[in-house]
Amino acid sequence: MAWYVFALVDEPPAARPGRGLRDALAARRVPGGYAIVERRADVPPAEFDTLRAHDAVVARVAATVPAILPVRFGTLLELEEIEESLAERDEEIGEAFDRVRGRVQFTWRARGAGSEARGAKPAVMSGAEYLRAAARVAAPPASFRTVREKLRALVVVDRFQPATPTLPNSLYHLVDRGNAERYHRIAKTLTSATSRLVVSGPFPPFAFTPELL
User: How do 25-30 and 33-40 pair as beta strands?
Assistant: First the structure.
């Protein structure tokens, strides 16, 4: 039976990781860190409740480790395949862990935005290319300028994602956990002043994780 992968972590969880979607989670040593996995015979259905349960597992694990790199939904592999995919990528994985260690993600969305990108095909990237490309995208629209100015001091990494056929313009902020409460207070003040933006979080750093598996 294969392993369903939720995330890579830099250290095993401080406590027992609990259950996954159905069975007990395990932390298996892999190149560059540990994989948080669950034994499973098939890929779970891509339904709302399952997606939400998957994210809840990742969030629960994230609260117990210094650094986590969430893995995309539906990743079902044999242990040998996981090890092969991560082999000789220790430096890349280490850099990714360093980027997110002790940090959480906040996500900003622009209401009603994104029509200009209808029909555009999002790029598929992985590893360092993913992060370099994220740094090269166009500057955020004017609706995000105040957000950037007011929260600049609390943001470690700022990433703008232009609209896609399924998502509006999005701004992702990576924030130290110790600053998350202050960030949230300021963010709520900003959203109360406009109906054009919505903020959510804190989350595990989904938008700052290169595709490793």
Answer: antiparallel
